[in-house]
Fold this protein.
Amino acid sequence: MEPNDLSGTGQRSGVATNVIEAIVAFLIMVLGAVVIQGSWALGSGWTSDGPGAGYFPFYIGIILCISGAGIMIPALFGKNRNTEIFVDSVQLKRVLSVLLPALVYVLAVQFIGLYVASALYIALFMIILGKYSRVKSVITALAVNVLFFFMFEVWFKVPLFKGQFDLLSFLGY
């Protein structure tokens, strides 16, 4: 059984590492092409008073495209390409159990603000993934966010985003 095999069967299934490398390389090349196109529109040439606004980004885009190709070619056609499984279903489930709530948190911040969304995120994360008691989780979430509220809003006078609904408007901040 391999050290990363958590299923107990000794057989892992999933996507090969070299395929993931090729996908990431392709995305880097797409990013490079977008940078090249944007810098071309800004003016990537040399003007009468020096380099145009897109001069340096243009060459950064070219470097990104060359780097992506330098990763993709060995990943797809190299004789020493890594064909081991990149991630299996158990590992992917663990990653998604953290990633998906984080994405929901980012969306929630837009509507209910940083403080309320953070309190909910911390409490639910502790309850669901950490298996802490509800009381301990809620107290911790509230304590952390009250501390941050006083630190930013009261002491440093730096207002943080309250969201579209501003659920803390009753506090006067």
Remarks:
- The chain has a mean pLDDT of 91.
- The two ends are 58 Å apart (CA to CA).
- The longest helix spans residues 89-128.
- The CA atoms of residues 86 and 158 lie 43 Å apart.
